[in-house]
Amino acid sequence: MKQVVQNYKSGELAVLDVPVPGCKPGGVLVRSAYSLISTGTELMKVSEAGMSMLGKARSRPDQVAKVMQSVATNGLPATYRKVMGKLDSYTPLGYSLCGVVEQVGTGIDEVKVGDLVACAGNEHALHAELNWVPKNLYARVPDRLAPRHAAFGTVGSIALQGVRRGEPQLGDVALVIGLGLIGQLVVQLLVASGVRVVGVDPDPVRCELAERLGAASCGDPASAAVEAAVAELTDGHGVDQVYLAAGGGSNQPVELAARLCRDRGRVVDIGKCRLDLPWNAYYEKELDVRFSRSYGPGRYDPEYELEGRDYPIGYVRWTERRNLACFLDLVARGRVDVEPLVSHVADFDDAVETYQRLKDGDLKAVAVLFRYPPHAPEAPAPEVAVPAVNVRPRPARATRTPVRLAFVGAGNYATSMLLPHLAQRDGVELSAVVTTTALSAANAQRKFGFAQATTDLDAVLGDKAIDAVFVVTRHSSHAELTRKALLAGKAVFVEKPLALTEDELTGVLAAVEESGNDRLQVGFNRRFAPLLTEAGKRFGARTGPAHLRYLVNADRLQHGSWYLQQGTEGSRFEGEGGHFVDTASWLLGADPVSVYAVASSGNEGGGDIQAVLRYPDGSTATISYVTSGAPGFPKETLDLVADGKVLRLDDFVRASVYFASTAGRKKWVSARLPKARDKGQSAELAAFVRAVRTGGPMPVPLESLVATTAATLAVRASLAGGAPVTLARTR
């Protein structure tokens, strides 16, 4: 299928051929009929992409701050790779469309194939021929509403939410500053609510359009006519509400709002304009400044948007989806007229030219629609019955060179921490990348040279030419995808965690037993870190019990991060804790026999966690996983004490070993600071590829992978029961 994309580094716009997205549970696959260009939001993004690197930094100081924090935490080289990888990727455009349901995912029963729906979301309602859209981000289109008008649903919801935040009443007078697409819709919604409207915009054509659509008077912000109209309509008191629908760097809109608003009036910011509030003016009138957050309640809440968990109507009357349905109904009943806003309709194939004309100013428009070509269903492919071959896999043997790899998932970790090492490695061929979202597969194929990008997992698992499969998806899918790949006879590298429940872990082991295929590696990379392995050698063998302390100063997660979706993706510790359990067990040379964990309350992800692991020889490891620490402090510090010796690791930047004075030496310190924090990914991948190529044993024994996973799960059980959990070995 085709999709409009942009490279944020170079500014390049393209219509790219990408794989068709998969139809996941909890949503529908929609074939686009019309999609709407937001001439404000999207053109701002397109313009930013054309800036120099310095210009991009100046326009996004929030992102610069994140980059500086990453440099402090992960080092400059790793941060540079991550940032440049993100910049030099194709990103999607679009967030408002109308289309026909082509496929219905499990759990969806209110729409069927062939229904016309309006869709929302900058990750789901893209300028693409096909989109997967979750349940709460689409609404059925009323029968009497044309598809080109239904494509306004998302921007209409933004305007509608802004009006709701202003709480207009019959007889009010409102001022709308900025008469672009959102401003024109706000004008109509206010008029439909019984409010008299004055509009402000420097463009006389837009002012004239707003008056045709119901505004009482419109004019230039610098003209006396606007102030005169407000004085006449309000008897000199000022307007009841001001709606800021303007963009740009001028502070004129907020100053004008203060001047023309009545005492204790409301100012609602819908657009993205400068907000240096003149304190005296706002204080003297005690103005109520409000923000309108996109489409309405539910926005940026992954449980609402991605998992389909609706808010009870008795508590939240107007959610994103209900706003979307409401706006569609208003347009269908003629209370809002969007046809006069349509300045241009372009064929989807002409998308790049259309964006360029808008950017250059050759096409002056309020709203532009992309029209998609009618879809002719493909004839079903002829089928050939292939009998199943039920042959038990043979023991592992050497493979040909190159080793052919497939990736399931191509998110940030895969593209920044794994694929750069593999793409440069001799004797490796990146054969296929599988994702549920088409563009991420296309980006990975372009950047790393995959021979194939697809959304068809079964076809990849059935490809006998592929030697190994990397599972780098969200945590909830790891166990099932690993199980499928093992049963398909592939060597498997799965990022942590291997499993989120005991049943999932049992299922993976059942697949090993059924297939005879134990070629499994979990991404516990720290035991392969050169600095730590060197320190371990310097520390040497021990004779008595050891005590290990591992402090993990985890960053606080941003609101909306999928790591906070504990109901489906497990807790943060369940997702990441295996790293630290594995490192401790490797240093101590054994698997734990019991786990005791306690947590503080009030912090994200269930609070700061202290987990104490006990080992057969009496050794202990204490893992402190905290989110309440200072962001400037190193993420990982480790101390190992035994036999009069101390090993110290400082965040993979420096290591040291202290010896008892009788040993003839007192201290070893790593020779120099590494150029970057090497946490072992490169060495781990080399060991895995070597094992696949030679048929030799996997880098980490399966028993150890299982024990680490069980210990990580035991932390949750201990937190729930408030007591130590014994890790009993079953036969």
What are its keywords?
731 residues; alpha/beta; Quinone Oxidoreductase, Chain A, domain 1; Rossmann fold; seven-stranded mixed β-sheet; 24 helices
Gist?
By secondary structure, the protein is α/β, with parallel strands linked by helices.
What strand order characterises the main sheet? 32-31-30-29-25-28-27-26-33
- Looking at the structure, the CATH topology of the largest domain is Quinone Oxidoreductase, Chain A, domain 1
Rg over CA atoms, rounded to whole Å, is 30 Å
Q: Whole-Å distance between the termini?
A: 51 Å
Integer tally of domains: 4
- Which CATH architecture of the largest domain is right? Alpha-Beta Complex
Mean pLDDT across the residues is 89
Strand content: 15-25%
- Unreliable runs, pLDDT <50, ≥5 residues? 379-394
Please give the largest β-sheet. Answer: 9 strands, mixed
User: Please, what is the CATH homologous superfamily of the largest domain?
Assistant: Medium-chain alcohol dehydrogenases, catalytic domain
Cα shape: elongated
Q: Which structural class matches the secondary elements?
A: alpha/beta
Individual helix count: 24
Count of DSSP strands: 33
The amount of helix comes to 25-40%
What is the name of the CATH class of the largest domain?
Answer: Alpha Beta
